[in-house]
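One record is kept unedited as follows:
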Amino acid sequence: MLVHTHWDSDDIYGAMAVYKALKPKDVANDKVFLTLGPWYHGQAINDGSSFSALRFNSDTSLWFRREILRPFLDRYLKDEAPATAISPVAAFETGTNTWQRLEGWPAGCEWNCAIHPTNLYLNQGLQLSFNPPQPALAPFDEYISDPATPVPYRVRAASPEHNRPTWPQWLVDDRREMSGRPDVLTFKTAVLSEPLKIGGQPTTDLSASTNGTDSDWIVKLIDVYPEEVAEQPSVGGNQLMIGADIFRGHATARAWRNPYPSSRISRSSTASSRCRRRIMSSFPDIASWFRPSRHASLCMTVIRNPSPPIFSRPNPPITARPFSASTTRRAQRALWNCLSSPDHEY
């Protein structure tokens, strides 16, 4: 049994990577089991009724240990254990705060649900929409990224993380301070009129340009709470990060500089007229409902040295080559809402 924790600040990729490697070999669907819980690293063995400001209305960790883990261990470790039906997948859905017993992952619901991949588009006016952008309107949004004023990953003031008891909580910190900065682009849906479920591994497909030499792009999927939440006033207006990932660009600095003959690229000092690159990556797996009266926002930023350092620290550490002030500079970045145009080709 593999246990994936939704906000795991230590290893958010490992369990799902192993599951996806092994599950295709489980042809009878009775050897590889998966649990997705709303926890920090290791919270499955602690109290699971809350996580920072989040309240789940029950002890999710205790339910997992009683209803999933103990029957599983009894079945495979005890002689003459009673036959117990164990679902191949147990997933806790944030938003509805309910456990789902599923036949596989990803899944739309418990039984006989079709999965429909759905596109969300970056639109004009920093809008996030299920409708594709109109080609006749402004094709990009841009901003300035300056290493002298880096975008923090936690609310200031920060201190050495591993000396603080709040380290496991940083993935669920309120993101309002970061999303309001001028060097962060935030695309937001209209207020939802009906529930929106995301289950599985969302994929992001960016079209980006810069007049710098390289870029790392940080992409976050945010659940924006209403300004007033009657049952829990302390979370009013909260911006909860549902998923995020770092899209690496610094390894392809040559491609940013001149990937095509100059005759095919319109050049100037602005990011909007520099060559574009297509950057694709996926978030960690998600099981979440966006409730009515909320927004789904996609926050995008560029960080030259991504934080926290744990995500950029190679193994072994002696191979690290940290960026220095001499290799970073203020640069203009642009995100495009269409994939091709006469002057910008892939």
